[in-house]
Every structure is written in C-alpha cells, then in structure tokens.
Amino acid sequence: MKNLIQTLSVLLILLLATSTIQAQEADTPLLVVSFQKVKMSDMSKAEELFENNFAPILNAMVDEGFLLSWGRFVHAWGDEWNLNNWYTAKDMKSFSAFWDEYIKRIGAENEAWEMLREMIQEHKDNIYVITSQYPMPPTE
C-alpha cells in the first residue's frame, strides 16, 4: 500500500509539472535556436548563401508578424557549432505557423537551400521557453 501511495504521489507531481510546463509554453514567448556544424573552409560561402537567400525571407516574415525577431550568430570561440540562427516567437503555435510558411517560401527546389544543406555536417535545434526578458516583446 505504501508503494502504491508513493507511486501515485509521483505520478500526480509529474502530471502537475507537465501541466505547468504546457501552460507556460502556451502563454510564453519562445526562443528557438538552430545550430549547424559547417567546415571552416565553407563558412564564408555558407554565410553568403544565408545572407543573400534566406535573410530577406526572414526579415519579411518578421515584418509580417510571423516572428518577433530572428538573428544569426557564428562561432567566435568555443565549441564546434559555428553557423547558428535564433528565432523568437509569441508561442509554439506562432512558431509552427512561421516554420510552415518559411519552408513554403524557401521552396522544395531551391538551389541555395540545397547548397547550404550540403555544407551542413550536423544540425540540432533547441526550443526554450523565455521566462525572463527585458523589455518583454509585444503581446500583440
């Protein structure tokens, strides 16, 4: 009986924690960070491809309200993730709508996209809930 009560207590705590996290994700802005590993010899070409082909699309999508902001950062010192982008969105639903539209605008047969993808050796994404920020982004 004691084990059953402990197990149910742990399940309840996990359920409450999950509910709290989901509520935060629904109501809180997101920071999405996309990390890429690119050979150092390919970095200048990768940056040029990105700046000329994808930055204008992202700028337009901020202007249209799909994103709150976006940015790119490259390796200065540290680990091997050297070509990276960040995106801020109102919430997960907004980010999903942005991403769907972004992929449509890039297009399936985009030569620059294919060239950039060939340079990327490894990729990972992280999605963070923003819990503190000054100033806070607009809510509308």
Describe this structure in words.
It is globular and about 45 Å long. The mean pLDDT is 84. Helix 2 packs across helix 3. By secondary structure, it is α+β, with helices and mostly antiparallel strands. Strands 2-3-1-4 form a four-stranded antiparallel beta sheet. The protein has helices at residues 2-27, 43-63, 92-106, 111-119; strands at 30-38, 69-74, 83-89, 120-129. The protein has one domain: 2-Layer Sandwich (Alpha-Beta Plaits). Strand 2 and strand 3 form a beta hairpin. Helix content is 51%, strand content 23%. The protein contains four helices and four strands; from the N terminus they run αβαββααβ. The chain starts with a helix and ends in an 11-residue tail after the last strand.
Strand order of the largest sheet: 2-3-1-4
End-to-end Cα distance? 51 Å
**CATH architecture label:** 2-Layer Sandwich
> How would you spell out the order of helices and strands?
HEHEEHHE
Structural class: alpha+beta
Strand segment tally: 4
Strand content bin? 15-25%
CATH class: Alpha Beta
Instruction: Give me the CATH fold name.
Output: Alpha-Beta Plaits
Overall residue-averaged pLDDT value? 84
| Helix content bin | 40-55%
> Largest beta sheet, briefly?
4 strands, antiparallel
Radius of gyration: 19 Å
Give the domain tally: 1
Q: What is the 3D form?
A: globular
Number of helices: 4
Low-confidence stretches: none
